[in-house]
């Protein structure tokens, strides 16, 4: 009966995707879900991975924690089983983990505070601005992914940002579980080199892709790209250059897509590397939302570079992607933790995810 319901209700919603992730990059159709380098809610990661796999995502990026990676892969496995029951052609997306070479990277932090210090008459603006609903009194912070919006609005200023490094010791034992890794860097080339010296020899012989997430370094951005590429010479994996336009802001409003696209355009036009040709691919992040792909298409910046000129190979979606699906996941009954157990919630979540993925896949 359950299989019949899946087939009847979801087959029309599933994109028939058999193109593997590496070919999606080459065609300018790559979609990555960012669960969050600091987001460690295994149940939510599982459900997000399940929904976006059904929607056609090429990659699920999650925290470098064994339980979180296992949860993402359980979600992917369940999605593929549902697709098989529906008779849909759906290939397996990559699983990616993130590592950083600088503890100041905003993607690797969590909010922390002692709720007992909060004044009784505090209006608690932190609760209202938190996109993850991670702050709920009298508890402290659970499910934070590090956007930092709560810190400046706290009236007594008692919320701190706790930053950390994902060390090679954290990451190396997980490489046999994933297909890709992402290095977040802020421009310290020596720190990048030192990190890669520890993880590169294994990562670049076993993984399908290495992603480098970087901020706008001003006029020196092309030089940094060349230096990072020099460090990464050799190996067999693809290189994904993730332009982090406006970090962790895509859920704020459509305007954040402007910064994201502008930075990607700058990198593409720099000529720093042979983007789109062979192993080097530009993929947007930081401020991406529903307005990103239409803008890229209107500017002629998305697609296969074989058609002439360097073009973006795809986009990664974090805060916005989580928000549109989490709005549905929050409707699960208290005794239900798996989204596929409530067919109405799964359908709504899948429709929301598909609306974000489809513009990349149906160009």
Describe the model.
This protein has 363 residues and is an alpha/beta fold. The chain has 2 domains: 2-105 and 164-361, Aldolase class I (TIM Barrel, Alpha-Beta Barrel); 109-162. The protein contains 13 helices and 10 strands. It has an 8-stranded parallel β-barrel with strand order 1-2-3-6-7-8-9-10, surrounded by 7 helices. A two-stranded antiparallel ribbon has the order 4-5. 50% of the residues are buried.
Layout: helices, strands, pairs:
Layout lengths: L1 H9 L10 H7 L2 E5 L7 H14 L3 E4 L3 H21 L7 E7 L8 E4 L12 H5 L20 H4 L6 E4 L4 H4 L8 E5 L4 H18 L2 E6 L6 H11 L6 E7 L11 H15 L9 E6 L6 H7 L15 E4 L1 H11 L13 H19 L2
Helix pairs in contact: 1-4, 3-4, 3-12, 3-13, 8-9, 12-13
């Amino acid at each position: 009966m359950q299989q019949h319901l899946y087939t009847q209700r979801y087959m029309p919603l599933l994109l028939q995707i058999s193109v593997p992730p590496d070919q999606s990059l080459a065609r300018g159709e790559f979609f990555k879900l960012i669960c969050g380098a600091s987001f460690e809610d295994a149940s939510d990661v599982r459900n997000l991975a399940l929904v976006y796999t059904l929607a056609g995502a090429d990659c699920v990026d999650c925290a470098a924690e064994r339980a979180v990676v296992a949860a993402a892969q359980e979600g992917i496995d369940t999605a593929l089983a549902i697709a098989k029951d529906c008779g849909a052609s759906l290939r397996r997306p990559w699983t990616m983990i993130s590592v950083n070479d600088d503890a100041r990277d905003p993607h690797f932090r969590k909010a922390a505070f002692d709720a007992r210090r909060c004044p009784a008459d505090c209006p608690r603006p932190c609760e209202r601005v938190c996109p993850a609903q991670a702050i709920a009194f009298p508890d402290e912070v659970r499910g934070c992914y590090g956007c930092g919006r709560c810190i400046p609005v706290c009236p007594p200023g008692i919320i701190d940002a706790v930053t950390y490094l994902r060390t090679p010791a954290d990451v190396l034992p997980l490489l046999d579980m994933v297909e890709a890794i992402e290095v977040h860097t802020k421009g310290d080339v020596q720190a990048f080199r030192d990190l890669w010296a520890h993880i590169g020899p294994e990562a670049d012989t076993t993984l399908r892709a290495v992603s480098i997430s970087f901020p706008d370094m001003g006029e020196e951005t092309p030089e940094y790209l060349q230096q990072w590429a020099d460090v990464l010479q050799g190996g067999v994996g693809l290189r994904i250059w993730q332009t982090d336009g406006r970090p962790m802001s895509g859920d704020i409003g459509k305007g954040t897509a402007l910064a994201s696209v502008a930075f990607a355009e700058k990198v593409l036009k720099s000529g720093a590397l042979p983007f789109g040709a062979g192993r080097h691919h530009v993929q947007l992040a930081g401020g991406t939302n529903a307005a990103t792909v239409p803008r890229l298409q209107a500017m002629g910046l998305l697609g296969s570079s074989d058609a002439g000129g360097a073009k973006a190979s795809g986009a990664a979606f974090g805060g916005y992607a989580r928000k549109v699906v989490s709005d549905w996941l929050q409707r699960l009954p208290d005794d239900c933790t798996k989204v596929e157990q409530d067919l109405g919630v799964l359908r709504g979540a899948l429709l929301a995810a598909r609306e974000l993925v489809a513009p990349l896949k149906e160009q």
